[in-house]
Amino acid sequence: MKAISATGIHFTYNDGTEALAGIDFHVEEGEFVAILGSNGSGKTTLINLLVGLLRAKSGEIRIGGRAIGELAAEELYQRVGLVFQNPNDQLFAATVEEDCAFGPRNLNLPEEVVQRRVAEALAAVAALPLRGRAIHHLSFGEQKRVSLAGVMAMRPSVLILDEPTAGLDPAGEAQMMQLLKKLNREEGLTVILATHSVDMLPLFANRIYVLGGGRILQEGPSEDIFCHQEMIDRAKLRLPYISRLMYEMKRHDGVPIDGLPLTIGEAREQILDLIPKELIIPGIAEIGP
Amino acid sequence: MFELFSDIFTYRDNALARIDPRVKLAVALAALVAVVTAQGIVLPLAVLGLCLGTVAGLRIPARLIAVRLAAPLSVVAVLVVLQTFLTGTTPLFYFAIAGWEFTAKAEGLSRGMLLGARVLGAVSAVFLLSVVTPAHRIFQALRRFGLSRNWLEIAVLMYRYVFVLMESAADLAAAQKLRLGYTTKGRALRSFTALAGATILHSLEQAGRTHNAMRLRGYRGTMPFGPLPALGRKDRMILAFCLAGIASARLLEWGALR
Predict the structure, then answer these.
(1) pLDDT digits over A105-123, tens only?
(2) Residues A245 and A174 occupy one common structural domain
(3) Distance between CA atoms of residues B109 and A21, nearest Å
(4) Residue from B119, B123, B114 nearest B83 by CA
(5) What are phi and psi of A275, to 5 degrees?
């Protein structure tokens, strides 16, 4: 069943800027889908339409099979949750606990249920020890995780994240992506993330939509997306660094590589296949200068 | 400026921090009433001494105390000077500047000192409350004292976003400084005006984004607040003891002055 289905979506801002020009976007339940696009490609506009913050000029958006307009706010936001790019935009309470309890309390749930949801949401993002802390005393990475917990406490079946790794250091970025993978694979949450960071997507996303100039330029699994160099250039994106290295080795040095590896693991396997077995010294832990 | 708003000390664990915020708020309010209605300077100065002694005992840095008390101290200085020279009839001393004669009067001085002592006593009570209770706990307690939910909601959001906007303003100020925005008085004035304008714009944009985030989590015009637990026996005893102490001190002062 489709978790989210958007057909023929057009959206133009009041100043006349056409942000989306006929978008078709569909996500199945339990999928991990990425919306990939450069700045100004229409990612955030699409996300805002999917959660009802904006209304499409034309086209239809269905959430769990029902038209978005038919859903009351309470029902809609228990189905779809949005995590903003900047955690300061959505962490408005004084403490972590108060912020996570905001949504469940708005649903008029009994206090013990509210507390249980807060504990579970914080545990899911490994932020339980932060429960009593003041929001403004948290690091940026902690704020990102707590903002995710605040949305998780609403128990949405679809989680939409706008640039979830923006501003995080490499360790924080990997931790956030692993967390989203866990929520998707273990909790069964449908995850949609908008990003222009290409390096991690092949490891996590089932499908990728490439957005450019308000249109879908390409849609499919990572292997199908990153083999279209010309389309990637048109979208003002780039290949993952490891793919770029292999692409250049193939093009300039004639290294016989099949396809284009998208992850370090795939690239390693292909390189190992090219090296004669007798030249490989097993157990090397350090490489000298 | 950051020291003025820093609340890092309120999260330290100590005996006062563990007391229920409603008890601390009630005691602080009682102390405020006692100080403001005091007829002599002894009670307000005793409250000042007690509060500052407690604050020092909690190892709050002297710099923070000085920064927070700077504004009320200047108010007190102005009060004492104005009262001394503008009210009363019994001359104490006089001096002349550029043909203008200023005469200090005994009644004015004692009234100025009383008003000053009241201000300092009241401020020190609030200061002590602010270093042992996080703001959100004070807001929680204020609910029990009948403050409207709308006011509370505004207070909570202001408290949260004052730190965000201060950070944003500090970044902008640093960017201006790095481009020589504060090298002359004229430039400083222009830079500061631009900074104030940009901060207002940032706050408006921030408000819009925050409102959207609140809507997405079911906000319908009223921020929900969690329930307050019943007061424990220990807290009730502390409340009764403190209120009795403050009432006794006030009555003693009243009796002594009669």
Answers:
(1) 999 999 999 999 999 999 9
(2) no
(3) 77
(4) B114
(5) -95, 130
Q: What is the pLDDT of residues A163-207, one digit of tens each?
A: 999 888 888 888 899 999 999 999 899 999 999 888 888 889 999
| Radius of gyration from C-alpha coordinates of chain A | 21
- How large is the ipTM? 0.77
Question: Is A134 in contact with B156 (Cβ distance < 8 A)?
Answer: no
Residue B91: φ, ψ to 5°: -70, 140
Cross-chain residue pair B220–A134, CB shorter than 8 Å:
no
- Contact list, A93 vs chain B (CB under 8 Å): 136, 156, 160
Residue B117 near residue B41, CB atoms below 8 Å: yes
Residues A143 and A221 in one domain: yes
Decide if A63 touches B, using CB distance below 8 A: no
Structure tokens at B53: 């002694």
Place of tokens 């350090």: A286
Tokens 């790095």 correspond to B178
Clarify whether residues B129 and B253 are in a common domain.
yes
Domain of residue A250: give its range: 239-281
User: pTM to 2 decimals?
Assistant: 0.81
- Same domain as A140, residue A23: yes
- A42 and A174 in a single domain? The answer is yes
Helix intervals (H) in A165-284:
170-185, 201-204, 222-225, 229-234, 241-253, 264-274
Containing domain of residue B24, as a range?
2-134+246-257
Question: Cβ contacts (< 8 Å) between B225 and chain A: which residues?
Answer: 105
Q: How far apart are CA A131 and CA B145, in angstroms?
A: 26
Residue type, B47: V
Work out the minimum CA distance from B2 to partner chain A, whole angstroms. Answer: 13
Is B25:B17 a contact under the CB 8 Å cutoff? no
A125-145, pLDDT tens digit by residue?
989 999 989 898 899 999 999
CA distance B59 to B15: 13
